Amino acid sequence: MKQKSYYEVIYLELDIEVSSSKTIGEYMSRTYKIAAIPGDGTGAEVLNEGKKVLEATASKFGFGLDLVEFDFGGDRYLRTGEILPDSAVNELKTFDAIYLGAIGHPDVKPGILEKGILLRLRFELDQYINLRPIRLYPGVETPLKNKGPNEIDFVVVRENTGGIYTGVGGISMKGTEHETAVQSMVYNRFQVERCLRYAFDYTRRHGKKACGRGTANTLGLVGKTNVLTHVFDLWERVFHELGESDYLDIKREYYHVDAACMWMVKNPEWFDVLVTCNMFGDIITDLGAMAQGGMGIAAGGNISPKGVSMFEPIGGSAPKYTGMGIINPLASIAAGSMMLDTLGEYKAAEAIEKAVIVVTSTKIKSLEAGKMGYSTCEVGDLVVEEI
Ligand code: IPM
Ligand code: MN
Question: Which bin fits 383, alpha (ψ -120 to 50), beta or left (φ > 0)?
Fold first, then answer.
């Protein structure tokens, strides 16, 4: 067995979580610098509750949070014409993580803020993984008949900076009857390999066997090898090459994306960890979000494994509920838990998730805005009480 390092020994004696990236001095006085971007619509309301929960968790688990707020979003754009200045991108690179509310404003043409803020940060901070757990918490209703928390519990690893999203293509002869639009799905081996490696490693640590929920850790590739014979030939070859060379302990499966949608509804219990391209990942994770009870609970992480990651509720800005205090903040709170997990605060992250489960199973009536039986702020308070 590998000799334990000096720090690991001290951590064990103190009974605190081993985090190899920190020295003991750093561990004892650790403070995380978090950039909070409320964004548009209900983003600010849900992020406030998330911040409240994070602060309560930090004081309980003995770490500090230095939250700095940035006002990027539709209102600022309409007021000043500025979307996201280069200087801000550079500043954001100095933070430990980014905590995002929502992007999308009813008075701004679709695409401007999404591309200018969300996608730009994903690209420039190299957040090449989008991690989306699909987990039905106890007490939450799913539209899938006869399925419960044991059946709906898997994770999608979505490639997050390549594919159709890079905008390779163009439009020519616009406005004529011959106008032609092209938008290509472009992937290189480097992008595919790093995403697959992340997914294999993730499966090894968080798969069903690793979590004591099954007999194997299984990674399923979701593609379309029967039609997209170039791009998914690459994905499939690299998937099996890596599986054979470095991940023989991980069971491999393959699903066409259309079939994967079918099974997500009919047999979600088949899935453990799924990995897929950017576009398919975008689509299947909204399907997954509904299976886990809706946008009120679905959280996601834009992960830059060696850089600055960004965490968000995936539901969008819900303009029609803005300022009413009725939107569900649990997705934002769950995104905060993912953020702490990524920062190495495993116990604190788990404490938030457990508190969310108490709230879903014993407190709130429904996840839907206005039907929770509590206001946005009260739901945040309920989670804080549990922590
Ligand atoms: C998501 C969103 C974004 C995406 C939009 C807002 C650009 O739908 O995070 O899934 O397509 O990635
Ligand atoms: Mn989406």
Answer: alpha
Q: Where are the beta strands (DSSP E) in 173-328?
A: 180-183, 218-223, 251-256, 273-276, 299-303, 309-313
- In this prediction, residues 88-107 reach a mean pLDDT of 97
Domains and CATH numbers, the chain: 28-141+293-387 (3.40.718.10), 161-291 (3.40.718.10)
Phi, psi of 198 (to 5 degrees): -60, -45
Per-residue pLDDT at 134: 98
- The mean per-residue pLDDT over the stretch 66-93 comes to 97
Q: Give the span between the Cα atoms of 127 and 120, in whole angstroms.
A: 10
Pocket test for ligand 1, best of 129, 282, 285, 310 (most atoms within 8 A of CB): 282
Name every residue whose Cβ is closer than 8 Å to that of residue 242 and which is 6 or more positions away in sequence.
Answer: 193, 196, 197, 200
Q: Around Cβ 43, how many Cβ atoms within 10 Å?
A: 28
Write the pLDDT tens digit of every residue in 333-347.
999 999 999 999 999
- Strand partners for 129: 159, 303
Is ligand 1 within 6 A of the CB of residue 310?
Answer: no
Which residue's CA is the nearest one to ligand 1's atom 8? 282
Reading the block at residue 353, the tokens are 């998730």
Percent of the chain with pLDDT over 90: 92
Cα 150 to Cα 351: distance, rounded to the nearest angstrom: 20
